[in-house]
Amino acid sequence: MKTLKDLLVDQLKDLYSAESQLIRSLPKMAKMSKTPELSDCIQKHFSETERQRERLDQFSQTLGVKLTGKSCKAMKGLLEEGKELEEFGKSPLRDSLIVAAAQRIEHYEISAYGTARAMAQALNKPDLVELLNATLQEEGDADKKLTAVVYDTVYPNVPTDEVNGEAVGSNGASGNKSKSGKKKARS
C-alpha cells in the first residue's frame, strides 16, 4: 500500500469480510436468544447487514477493485468470543451476553466505517461518503436498539444475586425473573 486510496480499499476489504462473516452469524445469534424482542432486533439488523454488504459491492464497482480475498481478523475474534455463549443455555443471562457481544461488534463496525468515511472525505469521494454515512447511521441505530432491548426486556429478567446457592432477582424473589418495575438509567 502506497496511497490513501490503497488504505481505503484495504479498509473496505476488511469491512466486506466483516459483513460477510456477520451474515453467516447473525441468524445463529437470533436463534440463541430467549427474548423475542432481542431475536427480532438481531433479525432486523441481519437485513441491514445484507444491504451494507451490497453498498460495499457498489464501492467495489465505483473504485474498480475487488473487495473479496481478505479476512477480517477482528470480526473473526469477536464472533469467536460469542461462541462461548452456548454454555449458558437459553436464559436471560445468555441474552445479556448476546447483547454484549452484539454491541462489541457494532462498536467495531462504527469505528471501521468511520475510518473509511474519513479516508473517502480526504480523497474527495462524496458518493462513497454518502453511502458510508448511511451505513454508519444504521450501525449507530442498531447499537441504540440493542441498548433499549437489554434494559427494557433482558435485564429485568436476569437474576441479580445469589442467596444460599439460589438465584435471586432484583426484587428479592427467588427464581429467574426480576419484576422490580423500575426503569433503569441507560448510558
Overview of the molecule:
With 187 residues, this protein is mainly α. Helix content is 68%, strand content 3%. The chain has one domain: Ferritin, core subunit, four-helix bundle (Ferritin). It has 5 helices and 2 strands. A hairpin with a 2-residue loop joins β1 and β2. A two-stranded antiparallel sheet has the order 1-2. α3 packs antiparallel against α4.
Keywords:
mainly alpha; Ferritin; 187 residues; 2 strands; two-stranded antiparallel sheet; elongated; disordered C terminus; 5 helices
Sequence-ordered SSE layout with sheet pairings:
Blueprint: H1 4-32, H2 36-63, H3 73-82, H4 92-122, H5 126-154, E1 161-163, E2 166-168
Helix pairs in contact: 1-2, 1-3, 1-4, 2-5, 3-4, 4-5
Précis, in short:
The protein is elongated and about 55 Å long. The chain has helices spanning 4-32, 36-63, 73-82, 92-122, 126-154; strands spanning 161-163, 166-168.
Straight-line N-to-C gap: 39 Å
What portion of residues belong to β-strands?
Answer: under 5%
CATH superfamily: Ferritin, core subunit, four-helix bundle
Number of domains: 1
Low-confidence stretches: 171-185
Largest sheet: 2 strands, antiparallel
- The chain-level mean pLDDT equals 87
State the CATH topology. Ferritin
Radius of gyration: 19 Å
Overall spatial form: elongated
Note the quaternary state here: single chain
**Number of H- or I-type helical stretches:** 5
How do the strands line up in the largest sheet?
Answer: 1-2
